[in-house]
From TrEMBL:
<dbReference type="GO" id="GO:0004022">
    <property type="term" value="F:alcohol dehydrogenase (NAD+) activity"/>
</dbReference>
<dbReference type="InterPro" id="IPR020843">
    <property type="entry name" value="ER"/>
</dbReference>
<keyword id="KW-0479">Metal-binding</keyword>
<dbReference type="InterPro" id="IPR013154">
    <property type="entry name" value="ADH-like_N"/>
</dbReference>
<dbReference type="InterPro" id="IPR036291">
    <property type="entry name" value="NAD(P)-bd_dom_sf"/>
</dbReference>
<dbReference type="InterPro" id="IPR013149">
    <property type="entry name" value="ADH-like_C"/>
</dbReference>
<dbReference type="GO" id="GO:0046294">
    <property type="term" value="P:formaldehyde catabolic process"/>
</dbReference>
<dbReference type="Pfam" id="PF08240">
    <property type="entry name" value="ADH_N"/>
</dbReference>
<dbReference type="GO" id="GO:0051903">
    <property type="term" value="F:S-(hydroxymethyl)glutathione dehydrogenase [NAD(P)+] activity"/>
</dbReference>
<protein>
    <recommendedName>
        <fullName>Enoyl reductase (ER) domain-containing protein</fullName>
    </recommendedName>
</protein>
<dbReference type="Pfam" id="PF00107">
    <property type="entry name" value="ADH_zinc_N"/>
</dbReference>
<keyword id="KW-0520">NAD</keyword>
<dbReference type="GO" id="GO:0005829">
    <property type="term" value="C:cytosol"/>
</dbReference>
<dbReference type="InterPro" id="IPR002328">
    <property type="entry name" value="ADH_Zn_CS"/>
</dbReference>
<dbReference type="GO" id="GO:0008270">
    <property type="term" value="F:zinc ion binding"/>
</dbReference>
<dbReference type="InterPro" id="IPR011032">
    <property type="entry name" value="GroES-like_sf"/>
</dbReference>
<feature type="domain" description="Enoyl reductase (ER)">
    <location>
        <begin position="26"/>
        <end position="392"/>
    </location>
</feature>
Amino acid sequence: MATNGYSNGGSTKGKPIKCKAAVAWGPGEPLVMQEVEVAPPARMEVRVKVLFTSICHTDLSFWRGENERQRRFPRIFGHEAAGVVESVGEGVEDLAPGDHVVPIFNGECGTCAYCHSSATNLCGTYRVDAFKSTMVSDNGTRFSVVNTSGDTVPVYHFLNTSTFAEYTVLDAACAVKINPAAPLEKMCLLSCGISTGVGAAWNTANVSKGSTVAIFGLGAVGLAVGEGARIRGASRIIGVDINPEKFAKGKEMGITDFINSKACGKPVHEVIRELTDGGVDYSFECSGNVDVLREAFVSTHDGWGLTVVLGIHPTPRMMPLHPMELFDGRRITGCTFGDFKGKSQLPLLVDQCMQGEVKINFDGFITHEMPFSEINEAFRLLEEGKSLRCVLRL
């Protein structure tokens, strides 16, 4: 079977594969494009040929080693991607070689109490774990590399995915089979950014038609929240950021009002309350800053306002809220992967996009496209705020 120029023919099934990967050897060090060996998938695992991958701020955070517990190297980062199943391990029944898949960092086994519950999209075994760096079945790795001393050493995994490699091994619970007609260079964004933001508006907040929304942080996730709110018919979508250069892109993506939090002359929540007659119905914190989180919380209307936390908070600082403030009727909640159950619900979303039933502006998020070999340049663009999503072609 040939798919997007990829053909397996069974020649590599059950055998190690040598391929190129971008290996991180230490925090903040440039990624090294080098040959790695990728072991065959073990029981309930799949090996995937990665065709497209993109870079998220979470990759940057872990690469920098902002939290000491995250510093496990060498490591292969990356968690937004799309590709084709090369082979499957024992026990895998829902995936087969040639299937088009999107890796997800928040897995779904489909059998545990969590997966059976409609109240959560977490899984008892395969939920996201920021500090996990090995496979579930044996706590081992499927990557190895020869270091500068000539020794073969294990290379650690990242967020259940490790997509900065031509081939990767995933738990089958972390691979979503999608419509083979869907363009993989766009579908890779469903691995994290778009699913997280759109899902936060749809599933977590359940934004209603005619409501008001404030989004704190206009990166890819924040803009995806805006997409979700726009599709749901929000009447006013306020974008807040310290970088006014992001406002043009925000307007393109459907955000109606903008606040430069560094230049507004008063606390942002006061500005928002004035704009919206007492506060917005929903606020979304996408910056990972606890001070911004407080502004997001108090920018909502008392009595019914809801704040959804999406930002990654690497510091040990606690949430700056007093318990008595919750008695004003404002609520706050976190959101993982947009509260989508990945394997159950993403295939339907892809089909709806393909059929035109849901119109998500995938192209608006892709600001750069590059070959995989230029991954360090892609990191630089994201770090400097010059890109939303750079899609790398492997």
